## 1
Amino acid sequence: MQTKTFSVIDADGLILGRMASIVAKRLLKGEKIAIVNTEKAVLSGKRISKVREAKEFLEVGAPKRGPFHYRKPDRIVRKTVRGMLPYRQPNGKMAYKRLKTYIGVPEELKTHKPETLKEAQAKKLVCPYFTVGELAREIGWNPEG
């Protein structure tokens, strides 16, 4: 049985992978989810090595055939959640369609109270970390244009 609830999750200060796995489970249960402030989600690890990994990954594939590499933070977060879903199967495709991601907080969601995921807080991290927005800028995202 699928429930038709709607949640707004604020990604500010949440670890990307942990948040994505929790969101994926909730999407598979039938929940509609909007993730706001995606540029403020956190990646753990040293910035230099993660940026190098991302730039090497950008060299893989062809622009028309794929794999397709996104540079906007909302698309990076969306694709991370997709990696946690069985998106090639019908229930995974339907779950993926119930996900919306946004940079900042759009006008239509300002009335909703965003929730945070306590188990994915970056405060627990003792290693170095940086935000998805910083990674996106390093690999070619221009926030102004």
## 2
Amino acid sequence: MPKRIFNQQYTRLIEDIGSFLEQARGKVLVAVNTILVETYWKIGRQIIEYEQKGKGRAAYGSKLLELLSKDLRLKYGERGFSERNVRKYRQFYLTYQKLPTLSAKLSWSHYVELLDVEENLARSFYEQQCVKESWSVRELKRQKNSLLFERIALSKDKEGVIKLSKKGQLVEKPADAIKEPYILEFLGLEESLKYSENEVESLIISKLKDFILELGRDFLFVDRQKRITIGNRHYRIDLIFYHRILKCFVLVDVKIGELSHADTGQMDFYLNYYKQEEKRAGENDPIGLILCASKNKEFAKYVLADRKNMFASEYKVKLPSETLLKQQLKKLLT
């Protein structure tokens, strides 16, 4: 048995080889995924072309996909040719009729989720966000269920909604990074029960990955219950994040009640402190986000009027009404 070698060069050799293997495996997975997506697209195209020539309807009528599924399974095996999958291949081609527009970064599972989005604008948005933020299928499903597109779109004009669908969410100023409302269904809270601010904050920390997904991928967690001392008096900021694109700190205060004047005054104090004591050269002024259980829109309009870097958003512990949000968006677009 050869004697083991223990030195830095040999250890580095092992690590380098391992790195090459991981890179190669990643490329293989991407290549396999691309081939699978293209194959399913081509299968869908073949089905549509067959139908358009009249043979499908004439020979089998509405039973074509059911019979096709059965015969494909008999000849090529069970996996991949269920009637549901065959219908998806057909739908895939109808939705994405230009093969070059398909992204190599998205798996077939991503496209299956995207095909369930009926509205073209929303589907395009989720597709862009998947590519830009490298969403997993689980993350895509969660953002769809929380109606992320509708929530962001309702804060824009008609032209802004079209732009959102084509380019995804662009964060160019502080307001672009804020949602209304925030959906915190992953905390498992019951609307009928009362919770303390500390309990809500602790739950957020325990589900930090989900919370950052709701905030946006460019938010980086910095600290919780950050203590600042002024004149021998101690104050604590609930949550501190840093935004990579905006290059600034984001201070988050969690409130279990309705937005009040005291909440905005407190956030003003925190923002002034961070602007003077924590902001570094090349960074932008900090942003303040008050997460409240409810807010009076008229009151919020006036109390936040001159505070360009302070925002107050409601948080909901249950998924929003899909029907209501889509109706509101439809009114905006007509």
